[in-house]
Amino acid sequence: MHVFVTGATGWIGSAIVDELLDAGHEVTGLARSDASAAALEGKGARVRRGDLDDLDGIRAGTEQAEGVIHLANKHDWANLAMSNRTERAAVETIAGALTGTGRPFVLASALSGLAQGRPATEADPSPAFGPDSMRGGSENLALEYAEKGMRVISARFAPSVHGVGDHGFLSSIVAAARKHGVSGYIGDGTASWAAVHRTDAARLVRLGLEGAPTGSLLHIVDEEAITTREIAEAVGRTLGVPVTSIAPEDAGEHFGFVGRFFALDMSASSARTRELLNWTPFGPSLVEDIEAGAYA
């Protein structure tokens, strides 16, 4: 299958491109920079130059492919409204180009806000509707096309997709521990995060592209719930710094933008996903990765 991938050189995207190529698929990746283009070409992938604002380019890349994996997001925390609008426009463009083709469309989504007081499941609908909601309501927007002649799959990623080289949420938490000399958790530290190793996430996305039915909500999750205190304690042991509670009102100052997420419960089950695609993760746990020096 010839697959068009946005976000192809990002932390998750680069692993997915490797997984697709290893499985015999052809890949065209969207690349903003010369460095990104060179990285894709070095792997044997094709390159389409452009970014998320280049809707004509995204449409052309989609039309020329046999499937699409949409991972890119601006993640501009200072201007979330702009990021959400851009995400929605990209999803509308891709879905519009795939309507009636029967081709698969896998889009990245998130687990936040799905459930309160329990792990989220694949049966929980996204509460995000409309252009002003999280990610521009892109999951629900894409699912509107599930019966319009394409195969729509939402990949809901755990808040920690971990491994050596991760520059996401957890790397910011580790950076805060280095900066302040203490490894913090917020409040009583009972908020829990789901987690998955990067290579396991990439394999699951590839399986979803190849075989998940339209309308599938895939939970890209290995560990269901690791408390934020457990995460902080693993960071503290690795860095050799004390572990302490950070008051909720001080979380922004201590952690920066990631503080708003570290206070959330983002636990999730992937039982249905595992059964649907016969997926068994093999990578190390989040704590094992931290203690092995993945964030050192």
Automatic annotation (TrEMBL):
One Pfam match: Epimerase
Annotated protein name in UniProt: Nucleoside-diphosphate-sugar epimerase
Organism expressing this protein natively: Amycolatopsis umgeniensis
Molecular function (Gene Ontology), one example: aldehyde dehydrogenase (NAD+) activity
Gene3D superfamilies: NAD(P)-binding Rossmann-like Domain (3.40.50.720)
Region (Disordered): 117-136
Family annotation (SUPFAM superfamilies): NAD(P)-binding Rossmann-fold domains
Domain NAD-dependent epimerase/dehydratase span(s) in chain numbering: 3-210
GO CC annotation: cytoplasm
